[in-house]
Design a protein that fits this description.
151 residues
Length: 151
Amino acid sequence: MSHLEFGGDESFATAPERLFATLTDLDTLAGTIPDLVSSERPDPQTLKCVVKPRFSFLRASLRLTISLTDVVPPHSALMHIAGQGIGASIEISSSLNIEPEGAGSRLHWAATIERTGGLMATVPAGLMKGAADQVIRQAWQQVRVRLGELT
Protein backbone atom coordinates (compact mmCIF):
# COMPACT_ATOMS: atom_id res chain seq x y z
CA MET A 1 0.00 0.00 0.00
CA SER A 2 1.27 3.47 -0.80
CA HIS A 3 1.35 6.12 1.89
CA LEU A 4 -2.06 7.23 3.10
CA GLU A 5 -2.28 10.84 4.25
CA PHE A 6 -4.82 12.44 6.55
CA GLY A 7 -5.10 15.90 7.96
CA GLY A 8 -7.19 18.91 8.52
CA ASP A 9 -7.96 21.90 10.64
CA GLU A 10 -9.92 21.92 13.88
CA SER A 11 -11.09 24.99 15.79
CA PHE A 12 -11.29 24.92 19.58
CA ALA A 13 -12.66 27.43 22.11
CA THR A 14 -9.64 26.60 24.29
CA ALA A 15 -6.50 28.78 24.45
CA PRO A 16 -3.44 27.46 22.54
CA GLU A 17 -1.47 26.72 25.72
CA ARG A 18 -4.21 24.51 27.18
CA LEU A 19 -4.91 22.79 23.85
CA PHE A 20 -1.20 22.07 23.35
CA ALA A 21 -0.84 20.75 26.90
CA THR A 22 -3.84 18.46 26.38
CA LEU A 23 -2.69 17.14 23.00
CA THR A 24 0.87 16.46 24.15
CA ASP A 25 0.01 14.98 27.56
CA LEU A 26 0.41 11.28 26.86
CA ASP A 27 -1.71 10.28 29.88
CA THR A 28 -4.55 12.41 28.51
CA LEU A 29 -3.91 11.03 25.03
CA ALA A 30 -4.35 7.50 26.37
CA GLY A 31 -7.84 8.48 27.50
CA THR A 32 -8.77 9.55 23.96
CA ILE A 33 -7.67 6.36 22.17
CA PRO A 34 -10.67 4.33 21.01
CA ASP A 35 -10.67 0.63 22.02
CA LEU A 36 -7.81 1.07 24.54
CA VAL A 37 -7.16 -2.03 26.67
CA SER A 38 -4.16 -0.85 28.72
CA SER A 39 -1.41 1.78 28.77
CA GLU A 40 1.89 2.57 30.48
CA ARG A 41 4.44 5.39 30.41
CA PRO A 42 8.02 4.04 30.23
CA ASP A 43 9.37 7.62 30.00
CA PRO A 44 7.98 11.18 29.70
CA GLN A 45 7.99 11.17 25.87
CA THR A 46 6.61 7.64 25.30
CA LEU A 47 3.25 5.91 25.74
CA LYS A 48 2.96 2.17 25.27
CA CYS A 49 -0.52 0.76 25.00
CA VAL A 50 -2.62 -2.12 23.80
CA VAL A 51 -5.71 -1.55 21.69
CA LYS A 52 -8.26 -4.04 20.40
CA PRO A 53 -9.67 -2.27 17.35
CA ARG A 54 -13.10 -3.25 16.12
CA PHE A 55 -12.20 -3.38 12.45
CA SER A 56 -13.51 -6.09 10.15
CA PHE A 57 -10.00 -6.52 8.75
CA LEU A 58 -8.17 -6.76 12.09
CA ARG A 59 -9.41 -8.82 15.01
CA ALA A 60 -6.17 -9.10 16.99
CA SER A 61 -4.85 -6.68 19.58
CA LEU A 62 -2.18 -4.17 18.59
CA ARG A 63 0.69 -3.06 20.82
CA LEU A 64 1.29 0.63 20.12
CA THR A 65 4.32 2.74 20.98
CA ILE A 66 3.61 6.46 20.71
CA SER A 67 6.62 8.80 20.88
CA LEU A 68 6.60 12.60 21.04
CA THR A 69 9.46 14.51 19.41
CA ASP A 70 10.29 18.05 18.35
CA VAL A 71 7.98 19.48 21.02
CA VAL A 72 7.80 23.30 20.80
CA PRO A 73 5.20 24.52 23.34
CA PRO A 74 2.57 25.81 22.72
CA HIS A 75 2.90 25.60 18.93
CA SER A 76 4.00 22.28 17.48
CA ALA A 77 4.99 18.67 18.04
CA LEU A 78 5.65 15.52 16.07
CA MET A 79 4.40 12.07 17.00
CA HIS A 80 5.48 8.65 15.79
CA ILE A 81 3.21 5.64 16.27
CA ALA A 82 4.44 2.08 15.76
CA GLY A 83 1.95 -0.76 16.03
CA GLN A 84 2.60 -4.50 16.20
CA GLY A 85 0.16 -7.35 16.40
CA ILE A 86 -0.09 -10.98 15.39
CA GLY A 87 0.59 -10.87 11.68
CA ALA A 88 0.12 -7.10 11.40
CA SER A 89 2.20 -3.94 11.74
CA ILE A 90 1.80 -0.24 11.02
CA GLU A 91 3.87 2.94 11.35
CA ILE A 92 2.32 6.40 11.41
CA SER A 93 3.92 9.84 11.65
CA SER A 94 1.91 12.90 12.56
CA SER A 95 2.35 16.59 13.26
CA LEU A 96 0.34 19.27 14.97
CA ASN A 97 0.57 23.02 14.70
CA ILE A 98 -1.49 25.32 16.90
CA GLU A 99 -2.16 29.01 16.32
CA PRO A 100 -4.35 31.45 18.27
CA GLU A 101 -7.77 32.04 16.72
CA GLY A 102 -9.81 34.72 18.46
CA ALA A 103 -10.15 33.63 22.10
CA GLY A 104 -9.49 30.01 21.10
CA SER A 105 -7.16 27.99 18.90
CA ARG A 106 -6.84 26.62 15.41
CA LEU A 107 -5.12 23.26 15.08
CA HIS A 108 -3.63 22.11 11.81
CA TRP A 109 -2.74 18.44 11.90
CA ALA A 110 -1.40 15.91 9.44
CA ALA A 111 -0.78 12.18 9.67
CA THR A 112 0.77 9.70 7.25
CA ILE A 113 0.63 5.93 7.35
CA GLU A 114 4.27 5.35 6.46
CA ARG A 115 4.36 1.57 6.44
CA THR A 116 2.09 -1.41 6.87
CA GLY A 117 3.06 -5.05 7.18
CA GLY A 118 1.45 -8.45 7.32
CA LEU A 119 -2.35 -8.40 7.24
CA MET A 120 -2.39 -4.60 7.34
CA ALA A 121 -0.51 -4.48 4.01
CA THR A 122 -3.33 -6.41 2.31
CA VAL A 123 -6.10 -4.03 3.41
CA PRO A 124 -7.40 -1.90 0.51
CA ALA A 125 -6.61 1.80 0.87
CA GLY A 126 -10.31 2.76 0.89
CA LEU A 127 -11.06 0.42 3.79
CA MET A 128 -7.99 1.62 5.73
CA LYS A 129 -8.95 5.27 5.13
CA GLY A 130 -12.54 4.65 6.28
CA ALA A 131 -11.35 2.97 9.47
CA ALA A 132 -8.81 5.71 10.16
CA ASP A 133 -11.41 8.45 9.59
CA GLN A 134 -13.69 6.77 12.14
CA VAL A 135 -10.91 6.56 14.75
CA ILE A 136 -9.87 10.16 14.10
CA ARG A 137 -13.46 11.43 14.52
CA GLN A 138 -13.80 9.53 17.81
CA ALA A 139 -10.47 10.85 19.07
CA TRP A 140 -11.32 14.51 18.30
CA GLN A 141 -14.65 14.07 20.06
CA GLN A 142 -12.84 12.71 23.13
CA VAL A 143 -10.40 15.65 23.08
CA ARG A 144 -13.34 18.08 22.98
CA VAL A 145 -14.98 16.27 25.93
CA ARG A 146 -11.72 16.46 27.93
CA LEU A 147 -11.47 20.19 27.18
CA GLY A 148 -15.04 20.71 28.37
CA GLU A 149 -16.21 21.78 24.91
CA LEU A 150 -18.61 18.81 24.64
CA THR A 151 -20.51 16.96 27.31
